[in-house]
Amino acid sequence: MKRILFAVLVLFLLASVALLAGGQKESAGKMEAKTARIWIWGEDEAPGLNDFVQKVGNLYSQKVDPGVKWEVTNLDIDEIYTGFYAAEEAKNAPELHTLWGGILGFEPAWAGHLAPLSDYVSEKTLSHILPPLRHDGYWNGKDWLIPLYVNPWPLMINANVWKSAGLDPQHLPTDWAGFMSAVRAIKATGDTPWCVGIKDGFYGTWFPAILQHQLYNSPSDYLKAVVGIERLDKAPHDRRWYMVAELRDNGAFNPDVNSLSLAEGQDLFLQGNVGILHASGNAYMAMVAKQLGESNVKIWIPPVDSKAKFAGTMPLSSQPVAIPATAKYKEDAGKFLEFFYSKEIQNQMYQDISVFSGSNELDRSSMKTDLDRALFDLAQQKPGMCYPWLHPGAIEEASYAITQKLLAGDIGAAQAASEYEQAAEKWRAENPEELKNVKIWATEQMPFMK
Amino acid sequence: VVPVVSTGTTLGDREARVRGRKKKENLKALLFVGPMLLIIVVVYAFPLIQNANYSLRDLSMIGRPLTGLRNYRLMLTDPIFLTSIRNNFILIFTIVPILVFLSLALAGALFERIRGWKFYRGTILLPYITSITAVGLFYSLFFQGRGMLNTFLKLIHLDVLVVDWLGSTQFALPAIMFVIVWREFGFGTMLFLARLTTVPEELFDAAKIDGTNWFQRLFHIVIPQLATVIEFYVFLMIVTMLSWVFNYVYVMTLGGPARSTYVTELYIFIEAFKMNKMGVAAAVSIVIFAITAVLAFASLRFRTRLYKEYE
Are B213 and B112 in contact (CB under 8 A)? Predict the structure, then answer.
């Protein structure tokens, strides 16, 4: 009996050890299976983005590392920063997180909330990013932000409206005077030359940006004025106010420009009696072309009589992602970005959701429409800088309030420029640390910007 | 010498017993109030203290370092904040008197059973029970440059009056004020009417026999009888104008044009969610809370005095 009991005890012990060992093995297995997270915003501008990034995540698990499972979460626009800071505070940030570009994207980095992206992504991959876009994520010798997708910001014209005004849409104005006379001609027919809505502030800086950015040779030219090395109320930085005032005086804009939102203002173009639209994003432009007829719309960069390097270029903004400081799997985030920036995936993104990536490896022959071919040529050959990314939020806010005053006729261009400089002075005085950081950005050499 | 009463107990014993009973009652009261007090502390006092704490820190930095009164200084030197608080006070000093007068006049008229009073009484509260977002959206379309108001003005050949109401720095705030009055006055009217129905009718009958007109009755009977309710309504509306107008502004103008319709709530929202300055947003909310608390205290004192006068 004792022997039986002893045997049972031994068996029991063995079974327990085996179970424990198995459990350990299982939990060790569990430890190896990582769940990495990507929190993005962009579905509004690039419909299908969420699914596409998830698809890339799944492909990554299949082709690159089966031990990492990617989970994509779509953020609301108001959650971009609040969600990011909350996750950072809880030390539970995702591996990749959407932010805005330029200074708004660097602010978390300056506060210690971002890991330098170039520590995890190779220079070979980063060198494929279009230079002005890379500039908006590069600070103090490191890359901090990388474009997820890109928004082109050209003007679109409605050829029928131009024809009705006796203008030739095949030979668009090539100087500012010609542009102004075209505006007057369209206005004379009773149509609206240029539809804009700035109630929600998005366009305060964006719509003059297509004029002002052409006056610069590099983003640093403007940044120097932002940090106070030059003045924003002196040429060439004040030119945007004079150009907008001249457009206003020539009746370029719809009279309710101040009480319409960006979307409401843009949608006026769809009514067919507006000559010019400042469009944004491939998806929106494709929708406009579909509604008004692809042969009836044309992409245009307005002439501003500039000989600077950025003259005639198309502003590009990106929706970038960054690696948060408290992300658990930073190396995996870097590997994911390497995979995402492969030629195959970048071209697949265009095929799947019709938006451009920030890569110079995009294939022109894969463009699906004439409109996209025209946008592709400008984006790849004449990529412009993203003027609104080059100043902090306080200056952006001031910009749109001043633009509203200017458009309401309350102030003139000189006063607007002066108020803009005052807003910048206030920001400089109140944010000495941030100013120091922006000065680094304004003056540093970036080898890829040659 | 300690006086001896017939029950055989001393005065000191009785006092002690009364004190003991009172203590017991207080304890019982605390027991009833306690759970609610705890809830209030958790859902109200805790966030308030946390907010005050945030207002003294830089929340965007790792470790949220203390920055003293920097956020308050930034707030007070920001012209946008000063515009916001100025606009709140414009709302208080223009809308509250209009609301009180309009509500009193309408309550008085309904009480006197003017022709169609039943219909008015039924519909007067409709704007108040309509969602602010819906009201704001409707009036956005109404006041827009190509909105209903301008279409109507053009129709009757008053093109000279056509303005981009919400896009003009001069007219945007008055347009919002109009909408606030339109929506809020129904509540005051019903509040005053409810109180009026408890005023003895003999007072009005006697005044009528004495040959008083409607205005005399309004100023000599209605207003004095309604003093406590008016005081309550004024306090409520002041607090509303200070901290409950965000929806109107957000839906109709987003604070524009050129920040001419900014109010402190919108300022808090923009600072917190657009500018990522949570500390400044917390500082402003503490200031708004302090102003509201002072007003509430003053209102309470005033009401207590009124009640004492009645007694």
Answer: no
